[in-house]
Amino acid sequence: MCPGLLLFLLLAALNSESTAKLPEDSTGTKFIAAFPENIAYYYPVQPENKIQITALYDNTNVTIQMHTFNPTTETMRAGQSKDFVLHSRMELRKSQISNKTLVITSNHNIIVRAISLKHNSVQSALLIPTDKLGKEYLIPPTPRIPGTTDQVTLDVTERSPFKLIIISAEQGTTVTIEGAKTENVQLESHQLTQIWINESDKLRAIKADQPVAVLFAHSCAIRSECTCGLLYTMLLPAKEEKSKFFIPPVLVRDVYAETFLLLSEKESTEIMAFNSTVPLVKTANSAILYRPGLLLTLIPETDFASCFFVSPVFTVETSAVIIVHKNFTDGVRIGNSPPMNPDWQELKDTMYVSTEIKLEQNKNFIWHTSSKMAVYIIEKNGSALFGNPAPIISTSPDFRGCAVTPEVVKIGEVAQGWRESLQYCKNMSLDLVSISDAQLGAQIYEKITQVKNNGVEEVWIGMRRSSLTGNWYWLNNSPVSETNWEGGEPSKDNGQCAIMSLKTGKNFGWSDEDCCKAAHPVCYKNVSIFSLCCENPTG
Ligand SMILES: *[C@@H]1O[C@H](CO)[C@@H](O)[C@H](O)[C@H]1NC(C)=O
Ligand SMILES: *[C@@H]1O[C@H](CO)[C@@H](O)[C@H](O)[C@H]1NC(C)=O
Ligand SMILES: *[C@@H]1O[C@H](CO)[C@@H](O)[C@H](O)[C@H]1NC(C)=O
Ligand SMILES: *[C@@H]1O[C@H](CO)[C@@H](O)[C@H](O)[C@H]1NC(C)=O
Ligand SMILES: *[C@@H]1O[C@H](CO)[C@@H](O)[C@H](O)[C@H]1NC(C)=O
Ligand SMILES: *[C@@H]1O[C@H](CO)[C@@H](O)[C@H](O)[C@H]1NC(C)=O
Ligand SMILES: *[C@@H]1O[C@H](CO)[C@@H](O)[C@H](O)[C@H]1NC(C)=O
Ligand SMILES: *[C@@H]1O[C@H](CO)[C@@H](O)[C@H](O)[C@H]1NC(C)=O
Q1: What are the φ/ψ torsions at residue 391 (nearest 5 degrees)?
Q2: Among residues 419, 423, 463, which one has the least CA distance to residue 441?
Q3: How confident is the model at residue 3 (pLDDT cuts 50, 70, 90)?
């Protein structure tokens, strides 16, 4: 024990944890979904709707409850991804209120993608976990589609209006659909309502007293040459801050396909013809890209992340479209390797570049060693084009891989001796940090810079000298090979513990120090890295 230590107790300001302000990932333990009518109820082919579930942890028990059918339960392993084919009667028909919802629950975080498939009409959506759903949504403007939206009638599916499918999550709720005239709908829990969007109603917003999920869909929008297909996307909850949305050229490269952006802000909506020389839009709320056959919710810059999971619906023609800052293209990884010969294209007048990467293997994860990026999955099947933002596994970059549970770097709030500092970290199930190589050091120093409180100039790290041999050792038993001693250090006779400087210009250099000195600790917990498992085919 270090005598008189309490005298040195110092309280530093909070916000000392590096995992504090991260954007949302796509993982959760409860999801709700519904499957809009695809093509037309009279089209003589059974729909094949499915959900694709990816587990991030071992012993993940997943339960799928389809409306009145018996629930299915399955135990999944970390890194396992599986398609669950649903009962064909889950497809919605014309009724307004319906109980045909799907509830997916699990004991650990999972990722869920919904796929709606009928003959050549395919769409996919990334489901938002129920705890991240909202109570307010802004309704996007409907794109003009020749042959579909010019002579609207409910009698013919191809000419029916766009619709909203509003699903209640946990609890029953009153849903208010605001527009020229305001409509109220009462929903029980896990019930849905379909609202056909009549232009003359000028629908603007959906408000509910409990969280709801909202799909924006058309059952059979004309694609080309008198063929039609389902369009759908999940709306993101309303938000007021403006975000930047980057549109990669590959999403709009076919000359025949005119592309539009559907923008809905609180006060106004806009359908903007997309001009590829201006690949950036700034808008509040969200932005949806429309081109014949595809509705795609765009990823705002604030939701860029560091690891994504991509599992194709079909084995052919799946690609990942990646947007990354142009200084950081080297850090992109597909599985465990950099992409082969990526063709990075500049997004004019921005700091970003994008590329399309054809995915060879059956399943992939895409990650970045040090930065954040955006990834879309785009697939083609014959004339069907579909896609969605790739599910986010992690928002915290790590040079070692895709961080399912990110590393924790925390500067302790109390200055005390080395041994008490170690106990302090242990009390939070953390350890004093061991910085056993330069690459790990660089990542930890970067995080310390983000969370550091300027009053803290020196911090304890998990290294000390053996009293038996006099050799330095790391607490986690890593070999002491790459070190960052300051010039002339270690220098003291009685300096048995290693302290790190946070002063500007000192480059996080270490010195030996009297273990009783009062300093704040750097507490740490190692990352847990995602890896694929179970290479057996899905289904
Ligand atoms: C998960 O399911 C398995 C098999 O049904 C069961 O043995 C196990 O207890 C379940 N685990 C949890 C945490 O519910
Ligand atoms: C939905 O389920 C409720 C009971 O939970 C039932 O009262 C109602 O009739 C059902 N509605 C439809 C449209 O099937
Ligand atoms: C397109 O989808 C159908 C299923 O509807 C499938 O049988 C067919 O193989 C797919 N085509 C390609 C090229 O993947
Ligand atoms: C849209 O609303 C107008 C006016 O209320 C009505 O005359 C028209 O039939 C509606 N159209 C559809 C497709 O419901
Ligand atoms: C696209 O934007 C550029 C730059 O603002 C402008 O010069 C060009 O006329 C626009 N093209 C179209 C088709 O609007
Ligand atoms: C990107 O690189 C340029 C030129 O090397 C440099 O000036 C700029 O600061 C870098 N930006 C970032 C965010 O690293
Ligand atoms: C650790 O927790 C114990 C029990 O809660 C407490 O008595 C002790 O003071 C804590 N130690 C440090 C160093 O924070
Ligand atoms: C921390 O986790 C990484 C990635 O799983 C692993 O390579 C490394 O050995 C771990 N470090 C320690 C000290 O366990």
Answers
A1: -60, 135
A2: 463
A3: very low
Contact criterion met (CB below 8 Å) for 164 and 206: yes
CA 41 to chain centre: 34
Tokens for 300, please give them.
Answer: 């705002």
Q: How far apart (Å, rounded) are the C-alpha atoms in residues 357 and 377? A: 10
DSSP 8-class letter at 367: E
d(Cα 531, Cα 539) in Å, to the nearest integer?
20
373 by DSSP, 3-state: which? strand
Instruction: Tell me which of 117, 314, 318, 380 to substitute to probe ligand 3's pocket, judged by most ligand atoms within 8 Å of the beta carbon.
Output: 314
CA pair distance 189, 186, nearest whole angstrom: 10
- Cα three-residue angle 318-29-397, rounded to 5 degrees: 60
The whole-number average pLDDT for the span 451-463 is 89
Percent of the chain at pLDDT exceeding 90: 68
> What pLDDT, on a 0 to 100 scale, did the predictor assign at position 361?
66
Residues 362-383: tens digit of each pLDDT:
668 899 999 999 999 999 888 7
Å from CA of 428 to ligand 5 middle:
56
pLDDT reading at 12 higher than 50: no
Secondary structure (H, E, C), 135-167: EEEECCCCCCCCCCCCCCCCCCHHHCCCEEEEE
Query: Do 53 and 112 contact (CB within 8 A), yes or no?
Result: yes
> Cβ(285)–Cβ(265) under 8 Å?
yes
pLDDT: which is higher, 143 or 3: 143
Ligand 3 centroid to Cα of residue 222, in Å, is 20
Distance CA 425, CA 336 (A): 33
Provide mean pLDDT across the span 36-65.
Answer: 93
DSSP 8: G
Dump pLDDT digits (tens) for 259-268. Answer: 999 999 988 8
For the chain, the residue count is 539
**Residues near ligand 5 (Cβ within 6 A):** 275, 277-278
Question: Is the dihedral angle over the CA atoms 337, 405, 28, 373 positive or is it negative?
Answer: negative
Nearest CA to ligand 1 atom 3: 75
Residue owning tokens 């309280």: 11
Interval between CA 171 and ligand 1 midpoint (Å)? 26
Share of the chain above pLDDT 70, in %: 93
* 256 or 219: which leads in pLDDT: 219
| Sign of the CA dihedral with 53 first, then 59, 60, and 64 last | positive
Report DSSP state, residue 87.
P
Q: Which two tokens stand for residue 97?
A: 């209120």
In this predicted model, what pLDDT tens digit does every residue of 381-418 receive, in sequence order? 887 889 999 999 999 999 999 999 999 999 999 999 99
Is 520 within 8 Å of 414 (Cβ atoms)? yes
Other beta carbons less than 10 A from residue 311's beta carbon: 23
Pocket test for ligand 8, best of 307, 367, 400 (most atoms within 8 A of CB): 400
What residues flank ligand 3, with Cβ below 6 Å? 117, 119, 314, 316, 381-382
